[in-house]
Amino acid sequence: MPILIPILVLTALGVIFGAGLALASKKLAVSIDPKLERIHGLLPGANCGACGGAGCFGFAEGVLSGKFKIESCRVVEDKVKDMIAEVLGQKVEKKVKLVAALHCNGGSKVKDRFLYDGIEDCISANLVLGGQKGCTWGCLGFGLCVEICPFDAITMSEERLPIVDKIKCRACNKCVQKCPKKLFTLLPTAQPVYVACRSHDIGKDTRAVCPVGCIACKKCEQVCPADAIHVIDNLAMIDYHKCISCGECVKVCPMKTILKRP
After folding, report:
1. What is the sign, positive or negative, of the torsion defined by CA atoms of 43, 46, 47, 48?
2. Please, are residues 47 and 55 in contact by the beta-carbon 8 Å criterion?
3. Confidence category of residue 187, pLDDT binned at 50, 70, 90
4. CA–CA gap between residue 95 and residue 78 (Å, rounded)
5. Which among 31, 160, 210, 246 has most CB atoms closer than 10 A?
């Protein structure tokens, strides 16, 4: 009998507390807007943060509240954006498709200045005298961009250069932001011509360390029919508002620095 009383008391307390928790869960439950659930369900779950939100759920909340535009998500396809717009009763502004481009073509063609024996990471290597490469402007070849790309759109070539798959690339901007050499930009797929170099060294110094770097010869300037390319601070620069992608600059570049995406 002495044992039975405590058991009954504990049982009664358990029932009371359980009922209280059940009641509290109903009273304090946070209702989720069905639109929020639908929008979040349409997103890919990449959580890349390129939109400026805290992952895909943060983007869904931002779109619903008006903080973000639907176009802010660079990852989803146009048809998904249209579906999100339908949920919100809006129309999507169509934007030009972008793809990441690497402004370097050196790789293993460029010799090392010294033996780097540290952590095989672009950021770490860059902290040591700007990296081991003879060209201090170029790609270090450790593949940080490959690791951080959430869409497996970047691979490393045999020459230790990143290759961007323009089909897989969603222009999330991560490679642009993380590359310590600032070698990536997002370019319109409709304009495939780009300068595969970032060196601002004088032509003589560039040629001494890289066989494919810009030497500021200005031949590209002379043949461009649209006045879209000019050498600025020893580096050819393309004005994509003027460029007509004719490829004349690609043909005359003696260093094969100016390339055209296939």
Report:
1. negative
2. yes
3. very high
4. 9
5. 210
